[in-house]
């Protein structure tokens, strides 16, 4: 990059499991490490209706009891307990981030949740989609955003999906 544009500003974000020191040395760039999340995450396990968790930033541990279960249909990509937890969190206006193992799975799960959570449309995100070039992915995303659900895959611009959620909630998803 610097061969073609010596004044280019380069910022590299590296997730866990990488060797940031080696990469920093190899690129002759300073390493800046950040271990605090601007939006705290709760890491935990949902088992038999109880969510046992620990906060990422504050390391506080706790339990939340979620008794209700939702019957799922044959087409559900989620089990009853997971769907119940997602519904509970969405009713509390919590941000929910679900990791899947493939692009197709993330899209199918987003379609399913959009059709089953009864969330309001993500109006700001829908407006933003009109400002970027049309694509098949944007059409799929629009269908989900009309029901308050989004998905993000490598071929979608992160800013396209996240900016309106930041405006709506006051936090940027990280």
What does it look like?
The structure is a single chain. This protein starts with 19 loop residues before the first helix and ends in a 5-residue tail after the last helix. The protein is built from 6 helices and 3 strands, in the order H-E-E-E-H-H-H-H-H. The mean pLDDT is 80. It is globular, with a radius of gyration of 19 Å. Strands 1-2-3 form a 3-stranded antiparallel β-sheet, with helices on one face. The chain is α+β, with helices and mostly antiparallel strands and 174 residues long. Strand 2 and strand 3 form a beta hairpin.
How are the strands ordered across the major sheet?
A: 1-2-3
- Number of helical regions: 6
- Label the overall shape: globular
Strand proportion: 5-15%
The N- to C-terminal Cα distance equals 26 Å
Number of strands: 3
Mean of all residue-level pLDDT scores: 80
Write the layout of secondary structure elements.
Layout: H1 20-27, E1 42-47, E2 50-55, E3 61-65, H2 80-91, H3 103-116, H4 123-130, H5 136-145, H6 158-169
Helix pairs in contact: 3-5, 4-6
């Amino acid at each position: 990059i610097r061969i073609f544009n010596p004044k280019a500003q380069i910022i590299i974000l590296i997730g866990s499991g990488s060797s940031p020191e080696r990469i920093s040395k190899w690129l002759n760039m300073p390493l800046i490490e950040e271990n605090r999340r601007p939006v705290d995450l709760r890491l935990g396990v949902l088992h038999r209706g109880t969510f046992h968790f620990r906060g990422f930033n504050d390391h506080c541990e706790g339990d939340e009891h979620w008794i209700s279960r939702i019957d799922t249909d044959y087409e559900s990509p989620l089990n009853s307990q997971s769907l119940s937890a997602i519904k509970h969190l969405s009713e509390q206006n919590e941000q929910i981030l679900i990791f899947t193992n493939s692009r197709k799975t993330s899209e199918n799960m987003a379609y399913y949740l959009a059709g089953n959570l009864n969330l309001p449309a993500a109006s700001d995100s829908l407006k933003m989609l009109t400002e970027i070039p049309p694509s098949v992915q944007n059409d799929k995303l629009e269908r989900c955003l009309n029901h308050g659900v989004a998905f993000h895959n490598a071929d979608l611009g992160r800013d396209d999906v996240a900016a309106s959620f930041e405006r709506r909630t006051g936090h940027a998803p990280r």
